[in-house]
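Q: My collaborator sent me two sequences in one message, no labels, and asked for predicted structures for both. Can we handle them in order? The first one she listed is below.
A: Yes, handling them in the order given. First sequence, followed by its structure tokens:
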Amino acid sequence: MRSVADAIVQHLAAAGVTTIFGVPGGGSNLDLIAAAGRARLRFVLTATETAGAIAAIAQAEISGRPGACLTTLGPGVASVVNGIACASLEMQYRPFGQPFEPHPGTLEHWLTERYSLFAARPDGRLAYGEIDHRPWRLQPAVADFSVNTMLAPLGILEPSGPPLVHFSHSIDAVAWRLQPLSIQAEPCG
């Protein structure tokens, strides 16, 4: 059976992506890197998420094909802002319905259950640490998009159906000391 990571990478490859830039985060990001390798897409480790986004945008502008950047959640996502400054997204969202814990094997579980933390050290090497937290309590949410120019420059059509949106108030996590990690990736200047 094909994994969610394989499906995502298959869509990236079909859109013309040949390289994914960035800094890996928890378990599902490693699944994406492994799936990219199986699909013969290169993963280029960058020192920061911002550098990954800028590299992906530069590659897209030079090659005319979509670029791809992999980030961590939270601060990692915020770090790509400079790299995607040529795109705009204005939206509002609101939760509705009852909170729930995603069941193993669902897309929601795969997207939220992460028990690893990755970070780029000041010397550019990657570090890894275990984390622990209770399962995420998600709530269905609705999003209203007033501006979304993030897909068109990449030649990607907006989905015809409603977006997959969830909300969570927060989650407390415990993190252990980061350890150096060796990963096969091409360093990006």
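Q: And the one she listed second?
A: Here it is, processed independently of the first:
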Amino acid sequence: MRHVGSASYLEVGPSQPVATCGRYTARDSCCGDLAWAARWLVVFDNDYRVLTLDVRSGRLRQIAGFSDFQLSKDGRLAAGWAGQGPNDPETVGVVSITGTSCRVVSRPSNATDSHPFFSPDGKRLFFLREPFEPSSGSTRSGDTLGVPVSSLRPSRAC
């Protein structure tokens, strides 16, 4: 990762400065969480988007609108959370690394969900659920809950 002026770059390639295999440029600070999902596929987040970069082709793809993400141990799924606005509750979702097959955790309207992570075998998803006051957008301390990934309901977008 490099910063030049106000722009930031994520460059993936050989350790010697011969060629860059993949590059992503951000207008501001670049790139939170960074993980290898597969030998040629880097996953990272920037500005409430989870993106993949194929270092062979240079293809960049947005797979979700999460503010943060966790990758499953096998690299096939990304879990994250997102809300519609500053005073809206957040929802936890799981998306395949290809950006298809989005599934979300069902939650009551008076709760907000965040900070998901997978069990070591990838079969369960754990997350923080906090009580949520819709009129003010405020939360109180919550609990860590777990659900089978197979029980998540399909959604059109993550």
